[in-house]
Amino acid sequence: METIKSISKEKNNQYKVWLEAGGSFYVSEDVLVRQRLLKGMEISDEVIATAKKESQLDHGYQMALNYLSYQLRSQKELEDYLKGREIEWASIVAIIKRLEDLQLIDDVMYGESYVRTQMRTSDKGPSVVRQQLKRRGIKDEVIEQVQQLYTEEEQLRIALEVATKAARKYGRNSHYERLQKIRQYLMTKGFNGEIITATLETLSIEKDEEEEESLLEIQGDKLWRKNQRFDAKKRKQKVTQSLYRKGFSFDIINAYISQKEMEDEE
Predict the structure, then answer these.
(1) Cα–Cα dist 74/66, whole Å
(2) 38 and 66 co-located in one domain
(3) What is the DSSP letter of 204?
(4) Are strands 42-43 and 14-19 parallel, antiparallel or unpaired?
(5) What is the dihedral angle through the alpha carbons of 231, 236, 241, 247, rounded to the nearest 10 degrees?
(6) Less packed terminus of the chain by CB within 10 Å, N or C?
(7) CA distance linking residue 251 with residue 262, whole number of Å
């Protein structure tokens, strides 16, 4: 048996119970009242253990409510939060169950809200949203269910917005390279092949021959200077290969190279 020496109030509705033997432990206000803990009272080790367990449960529950008050959370996010605050697993399980009963934790509701928010505020496609939900501990079957909200129409709308911005960003690339970069960019954003193809068809970037020649000249001049240390044959080969990799056609590459060779002969 232990005897309570004193009880002091701490912050967050916690109380510290001091024992005559020198030890101490924390209890919540509810547990203090429920167990009727008073100065000078003799308590058994069992009562102390029960008081600690119930107090951690109360404390963890209040922390969980505070954590949920800012925004919706997935079950895993809440579990990780409570683990990080050293709440025992048994208490976490009980807290989660209580919150589920009150419908304060619901991964389907969380997933639906997350998908709607991403569609409204981000440029992420379905596969990236799926990865983000998975990292938040949402089960595959729930992800499949909530991603039905991300309709093909919405995917096309968002993908077109992303592609339009990318088209401006890559405006100084060849027509072929520009399309490839837009395609790759849409893939990194999480859109599938069908949506990307449909988006590029809608975007309809026409090839402008005059613009293509102008872009080639700008990039070609840089490459021509960069490779001037090589002999004429090697220089021509390197510049031709580099421009071809950038998506320019052999016809305008050859015309450009011929022009540069004529300039060098003058």
Answers:
(1) 14
(2) yes
(3) -
(4) unpaired
(5) 150
(6) C
(7) 17
